[in-house]
Amino acid sequence: MKNVGDVGDLCTGCGTCAAMCPLESVVMRIDHDRGVYEPLVDGECDGCGVCLRVCPGVGVDFTDLNMRVFGREPDDMLMGNYEECYIAHSRDDELRYGASSGGMISQILIYLLEEGLIDGALVTRMNPERPLEPEPFIARTPSEIIESRGSKYCPVPANVALKEILEVPGRYAVVGLPCHIHGVRKAEVISRKLRERIVYHLGIVCNHAPSFRATEFLLERLGVDPGDVKSIRYRGEGWPGSLRVETESGDLLLLPEYWGSGFGQLFMPERCRLCADHMAELSDISFADPWLKELKDEKKGRTLVIIRKWPEKFAGILKGGICEMDKIKPEKALLSQIYNIYMKKKLCRRSMYNGSFPEIDFIDRIILSFEPSRLKIPWTIKRRYIFFYSMIVALKARMDFLGDSK
Question: Between the CA of residue 277 and those of 82, 114, 177, 311, 335, what are the distances in Å?
Answer without folding.
Answer: 14, 32, 10, 21, 16
